[in-house]
Specification:
10 strands, about 270 residues, 11 helices, about 35% helix
């Protein structure tokens, strides 16, 4: 299926989760640059809309975990969001984790890192010739169709077809994405925690390129069936290479990891 109807995407075995989130603040331009420096050619990132309709690269419903602010995204405009420090928290996280001064250098290195707009992120990916699994992220109260209608045209216009996969847990968002471009121009990834019973119908209706699953719940039988059906299969978010190793033997396509370099010896 994929080879006949989709762009010639060479999906890599290793994909950085929210950039290279083990080494830099997640979903930032810095995290993508870190991935590139480490030799990782694809990243997974999240896109949402601010209250003024600006698409930004962010995962959570609010900004409290990954910035010095507290507001929900839906209540922010870009002028306000651009003032946030989305980097200094990363060093504090390391210091709390390891109980020493290891976070100090990261505090200074990433202090002042801004939330990235979709436009900025796509420009960086294009300049670095990197591929992206762009997740249309839907938190409660957000409009999936509005998100897709705002994000898809700009993404199509900026990145080559072979450098992008659009994924989402939201079927309405993916339906709108598919309406905007045929499979030959836009690869879609069906995103699930566990593979649903009616996955064949779901994926066929979407004309999906790939299926993205929580790696902990993937069975050998499911993986075999998905691969025989022609889908690339991506496991998220794995950070233990030894535990993930059987999935390589079963034929999984890719792993999304906070620390993709840790998988280089086993992939």
């Amino acid at each position: 299926m994929s080879a006949r109807t989709h762009p010639a995407i060479a999906l890599p075995t290793l994909i950085g989760h929210r950039g290279y989130s083990a080494r830099a603040p997640e979903n930032t331009l810095a995290a993508v640059r870190e991935a590139h420096r480490a030799g990782i050619q694809w990243v997974e990132i999240d896109v949402q809309l601010l209250g003024d309709g600006t698409p930004v690269i962010w995962h959570d419903r609010d900004v409290s975990r990954c910035s010095n602010g507290t507001a929900r995204l839906a209540r922010l405009d870009w002028e306000s969001a651009a003032q946030l420090d989305a980097g200094a928290w990363f060093g504090k996280k390391l210091e709390e984790r390891f109980g020493d001064e290891s976070g100090d250098r990261f505090n200074e290195r990433f202090r002042g890192e801004r939330m990235a707009t979709l436009t900025e992120m796509l420009a960086l990916l294009n300049a670095l010739e990197m591929g992206v699994n762009l997740e249309l992220k839907l938190n409660p109260g957000h409009d999936p169709m509005a998100l897709a209608r705002r994000v898809i045209p700009e993404t199509l216009a900026t990145l080559p077809a072979e450098q992008r996969v659009i994924s989402s847990f939201s079927r309405p968002a993916l339906d709108v994405a598919r309406e905007m471009a045929p499979p030959a121009e836009l690869a879609l990834g069906a995103l699930f925690k566990r593979l649903p019973r009616r996955w064949q119908r779901h994926c066929a209706e979407l004309q999906a390129f790939s299926v993205h699953l929580d790696w902990r719940y993937i069975t050998r039988q499911q993986l075999t069936a998905l691969r025989l059906a022609g889908y690339e299969v991506v496991g998220y978010t794995a950070n233990h290479p030894a535990a993930f190793a059987p999935l390589w033997q079963w034929g999984i396509s890719s792993v999304i990891s906070d620390d993709p370099v840790a998988f280089m010896a086993s992939a």
